[in-house]
Amino acid sequence: MSKKEDFVKFDKVDKSYDGKVLVVKDLNLDIKEGEFVTMLGPSGSGKTTCLMMLAGFETPTNGEIYLDKNPISNIPPHKRGIGMVFQNYALFPHMTVFENLAFPLKVRKMSQVDIEKKVDKALSMVSLGGFANRMPGQLSGGQQQRVAVARALVFDPSVVLMDEPLGALDKNLRESMQYEIKHIHESIGVTVVYVTHDQGEALTMSNRIAVFNDGKVQQLSSPDKLYEEPVNSFVAEFIGENNTFGGEVSEISSGTCRVKLEKGEIIANPISVKSVGEKTTVSIRPERALINPKDKMDNNQKGKIEEVIYHGDHTRVRLNLLGNSEFILKVPNSSQNLDIKLGNEINIGWNSHDARALDLK
Amino acid sequence: MSSETGKILTTDGIPLEESLKQSEKKNKIKAFLLVAPLLLFLIITYMIPIGDMFSRSIDDKMVTNMLPKTYKAMENWDGKELPPEEVFEAFYLDYKILVNNKTAGKLQTQLNYEKNGFKSVLKKLARKQKKFEEGNYKEQIMKVHKRWRNVEYWRAIKRRAPSYTYSKYLKGIDMYSNEDGKIVQVSEDRRIHRILWIRTVEVAFFVTLFCFLMAYPIAHLLATLPMKYSNLLMICVLLPFWTSLLVRTASWMILLQQQGIVNDFFVWIGLVADDNRPEMMYNKTGTYVAMTQILLPFMVLPLYSVMKTISPSLMRAGKSLGATPATAFFKVYFPLTIPGIGAGCLLVFILAIGYYITPALVGGASGTLISNQIAYHMKSTLDWSFASAMGLMLLTGVLVIYWIYNKLVGVDNIKLG
C-alpha cells in the first residue's frame, strides 16, 4: 500500500472566535498517511484550535480542511471517522472499560462477536487484557489514558487526534507512555496528529513537528532538523536550550557572516540575514560550545564562570561571555579534569556553522 | 530493627497505644458534644412529636377506662350468646357512676360509633336505672329496651375492650371493622379518603414530572452557559425561591382566576370566547400550575450541580467516536445526570406529597390534597387521633417511596451538590 501524500491537508485556514482576533492565521499543513505529526507550541498558539477544527468541533472561518482529498468542513464530527484522545481522558465514567471500547463499535452497529474480538485486541494492544470489567474510576491515570488510546483506535479510524494526552501524568509514566504510543503508531501505521506543549514529548515521538506560535506554523520539519537547524529565533528559543547574542551584520559572504556585538564579534552562519547592516540574533546550542578546544575553531572567546550547577551526568556552567552573562555551557561528566571553578576565566570555542544568525527576536 | 523491642512508650512512660486511645476518646466525646444540641433539638422537635402522634393515633383508653368492671367481667364471655348476669351487673354499676358523674354522654357517642342506635338505648337506660332494685340486673336491664336482648350490642361493647385500636388507620383508607370483626370497606358514597390519597399521589407524580421536564433544559443551560449569563439565569431561578410562598400562591390566584390576567390574555388573542372563560383555579389545574412553579427550583438545583460536574469533553468524545448528537446525549450525558434526576425527583415528590398552603388556596374542592384533610381534622373536627393516624400514614408512604428509590437507584447515587 503506497502512503498517500497530503492525506490531511489544511488549506489557507483562518480561525477567529470573536471576529476580531485571528487565533489561526493562514495555516497550510500537509500530513502524509501514516505519519506522526505533532503540533507544538506555547498555550494560546492555536494548536488545539487546529485540532478541534480537524475533529469537527470548530469550523474554520476561512479556508478548507481536506481529509483524503475530500473537504470536511461541512461534515459533522460523528461522521468524520476520526479518533480522538482527550487531555482529561474523557472516558465515560458510568461504563466499564469494555463498554467504553465497545461504544464506537455499537454505534456502528457491529455484531456482538466482532465487538468482543475488536475490544479484546485493542485492550491487549495497550496491555490491559484483564481490565475489561473495571470501571474507569478504578484505574490509575496511566491505565485510564491507555484505555482512552485504545478507544480512539478500536474502530480503525484513518486519523487519530491526541490533545495533550499525557499532560496529567507524572514524569516517569509520561515517558513510558510516550514510547508506548510511539510503538502503537509504528505497529498499526495510523496517521496521528498530536498536540503538546512539551518539546521533549514532541521530539521523542514525532515524524514531523509543526511549531506553532501566534496562530502560525513557524517551522515544520523532522525533530532533528528542528533542533539542529531552527529557521527562526522563536523555534531556536522554544526547542531546547539556546545561547543568544543580539548584534548587527558587519560582513557577509557565502556560508559565513560577521556579527558585530556591543562587545566583540562573532563569526556566524547566516540563516535569515541577507545583507550587511541587518539586525540579527545569533543562536548557539550549549553543547556546541567547547571548553579549551584543542582544534582551531572559528570563534574563540574568554569567559568568566559565574555559576556551576552539578547535574550528575553533566555540569551546567553559566559564563559571562561577550557581555552575555547568561551564556550556558553543558560539560559532560568525564574523567577529563577541567578547571571549572567559580570565578575562573576559561577559553570557549565554537564553529561558525553552529552559530546561527537568525531574525531579530 | 528488632520486632522484640516490646511496646513503644511515650516520654512519660505510658504505652503509646494507650495514650493514643485516650486522646481518641477525648476527640470522640468532643465530637459528640458538638452534635449534641442538634441531636437534642431533633429529639424534642421531631422524634417526640412523632411518638406522641403515634400513641394518639392508636389510643383508645377512653371507653376502657369508663367501663372497668364490665370489661373485667367480660373476660370469660365468648360472645356467642347473651353474657351472664355478672356482666349485666358490672355494666350497671359502671354506667351508674358515669351517669352520676354526668360523663355518660361520651360513652353513648363512642358506642354509637360501634353500633348505630346504641345512643338511644343507653339514654333510656340512664333514665330508668335510678329505679333499679338490687339483684337480677340481667332481667331489669333487658326490660328497659328490647335491644339489650340482642347479642350484637354486647359484642359492640366488647369490641371496645382493648385500650389500643387501629380503627383510625382503617378509617384513613375508607375501611372499618364491622360487627363480626371483619375489615370491610365503607359504603361507596363515603369513600372520600381513598380519592384524596390517589389524588395526592397523582398530583405529586405529575408535578414531579412537569418539574423534571421544565428543569432539565434550564439546568443544562445553566451548566453550559458562560459564567456571566449563567449567574443571571441562576438569579432568575432563585428569585421566586426567595419570595414568600404565600405571595407566590396569591400571585397565581391573580393570574389564573376567571377574570384574571391569563384569561384576559386568552380572550384578547381570541383563543377563548369572553363568555366561556376556562376555570384554571379552584381545581387541579391551579394546583398543578402553582405547585410546579413553586417546586421548580428544588429540581433545578440538584440537576444543575450534577450537570456542572460533567465534563463537556465527554459529549465531544461521544461524537468523535461516531455517535450522533442524540445518541451521545442519551448514552453518555443522560445516564450521568441520573443522580441529579433522582435527587430532584425525590425532593420534589416528597415535598409535593405533603403540600398544604398552595392546594388549600388554589385547589378548591377538586384540587385539595391529603394534607388539607389532615389540617381539617386538626382544626375543625378536632379528631386529633385521626389526623395523627393520617399524618403517620403519609410519613410511612414517604419512607416507603424512599425505600423503593433506594432499591432502584441507590441513595448513594443521590447528589445534591
Short description:
The complex is a heterodimer of chains A (361) and B (417). Chain A has helices at residues 47-55, 97-106, 112-125, 141-153, 171-188, 199-205, 223-228, 233-238, and strands at residues 8-16, 22-31, 36-40, 62-67, 70-71, 82-85, 159-163, 191-196, 208-213, 216-221, 243-252, 257-260, 265-270, 279-284, 290-291, 299-310, 314-321, 324-332, 345-350, 356-358.
Chain oligomer state: heterodimer
Question: What is the terminal-to-terminal distance of chain B?
Answer: 49 Å
Based on helices, strands and strand pairing, what is the structural class of chain A?
alpha+beta
Could you name the ranges of chain B where pLDDT drops below 50 across 5 or more consecutive residues?
none
What is the top-level CATH class of the largest domain in chain A? Answer: Alpha Beta
Q: Work out the number of β strands of chain B.
A: 2
State Rg of chain A.
24 Å
Strand arrangement across the biggest beta sheet of chain B: 1-2
Low-confidence stretches of chain A: none
User: Which class best fits the helix and strand makeup of chain B?
Assistant: mainly alpha
Which CATH-level-2 architecture of the largest domain in chain A? 3-Layer(aba) Sandwich
Main sheet of chain B, how many strands, which sense, barrel?
2 strands, antiparallel
| Chain pair with largest interface | A-B, 28 and 19 residues
Order of helices and strands of chain B: HHHHHHHHHEEHHHHHHHHHH
Give the overall silhouette of chain A: globular
Query: Might you state the CATH topology name of the largest domain in chain A?
Result: Rossmann fold
C-alpha Rg of chain B, in Å? 32 Å
User: What percent of residues of chain B adopt helix (DSSP H or I)?
Assistant: 55-70%
Mean pLDDT of chain A: 86
Task: Look at the structure and give the mean pLDDT of chain B.
Answer: 86
Specify the CATH homologous superfamily of the largest domain in chain A: P-loop containing nucleotide triphosphate hydrolases
